[in-house]
Amino acid sequence: MNIIIVTTPNSNLKETGFGSLQSCGHVMASITEAGHTCSLNLCRTKYDLELVVKRKPDLVVLGVKYMLIEMEENIWLSDFFSSHGINFSGSLKDVLQFDSDKVSAKVQVNKDNIKTSKYFTALPGEYRNESLLPFSFPLFLKPGDAANGNGVDDFSYVSNFKDFESKVLSLHNLYKQPVLVEEYMGGKEFTVAIIEDANCDLIVSAIEIVPPVSANGIRILGAKTKNDNSEVLMKILDISLIKKVKEIAVNAFKSLGVRDFGRFDIKLNDNNDCCFMEANLVPGMTAATSYFPRAFNIDLGMSYDQVIKLIIGQGIRRVPVKLPIPPALSLLT
Ligand SMILES: Nc1ncnc2c1ncn2[C@@H]1O[C@H](COP(=O)(O)OP(=O)(O)O)[C@@H](O)[C@H]1O
Ligand SMILES: [Mg+2]
């Protein structure tokens, strides 16, 4: 197969997809190792994307969701390639929106009775005092549309109205969006990586993530912890917990209509209920550190090459079979 990996300059974005150019290089090496012809394209403009279309690849592997264009609307790569009739990896744009907009993902999974924390959104000054808040402290505040722990730090955990107002203001100043306010969940944290393989079977791997204890005594996966790689990734030993965590992720995969692969963050609340937190539909693919390949390695003993081979399985399955031209017709061409 002729496969092109497409990524964009993304080091300054609040959502990064597969990761750096080097991480996309790891993906390319594994696809090549699987016997395909594969190249990596760093696209900066719409013209660069058009050049990819001209090469008529069998499959484009998307390393990011969209390309930022100054003063214009983002170009969603899934939309761009589908409108040009090019087969691409991962979910369609409407589904990828669930990754970018955490509230919309919660609304969707709640419809299918998948539990999430209670939540509301807040703008600076919207709530005049503590008694007007939809529910009470402790609360957890984060941007509704960022990833990689961006905007998540020790001040995300809030136990009084003054701290609430100040974190709402700082997140709103940074992200210019209503701030997502959730009930604080103090239990264990998990991530579940799922691939739909070429046979349409779901391969599911789950791990526990243990961030270091922060200054205020809680464990959260903020940007600093993620950048420092100071969290510990562990096999889940409790069989009934593995079952519950995997079940909620598989249900979320189906509820959101995810295609090919995705990673789901899950946390236990203070009653030990498993709650869906968010979906990562173009998850990090850095070989040594990203949760997606690490989960498959820790839970199922799979190598990075095996994981990458699997994530393109459905994409390859979508390539139309090229029938050989009958000899009589081939004379005419
Ligand atoms: N409601 C919550 N209660 C406690 N911790 C939370 C809550 N929501 C998020 N966190 C912590 O913040 C981290 C980042 O939140 P998440 O929604 O997964 O955003 P990101 O897209 O940045 O990964 C989580 O991995 C978890 O450690
Ligand atoms: Mg997360």
Q: So what's the oligomer here?
A: single chain
The secondary-structure class comes to alpha+beta
Topology, number of strands: 14
**What summary fits the major beta sheet?**
5 strands, antiparallel
CATH class of the largest domain: Alpha Beta
- What is the general shape? globular
Q: Provide the succession of SSEs.
A: EHEHEEEHHHEEEHEEEHEHEEHHHH
Report, as a whole number of angstroms, the end-to-end distance.
24 Å
Strand content: 15-25%
Evaluate the radius of gyration.
Answer: 21 Å
Q: What portion of residues is helical?
A: 25-40%
Q: Count the helices. How many?
A: 12
Bound compounds, each kind once, are: adenosine-5'-diphosphate, magnesium ion
Outline the low-pLDDT stretches: none
How many domains make up the coordinates? Answer: 3
Descriptive key words:
333 residues, alpha+beta, Rossmann fold, D-amino Acid Aminotransferase, Chain A, domain 1, Dna Ligase, domain 1, five-stranded antiparallel β-sheet, four-stranded antiparallel β-sheet, 35% helix, binds adenosine-5'-diphosphate, binds magnesium ion
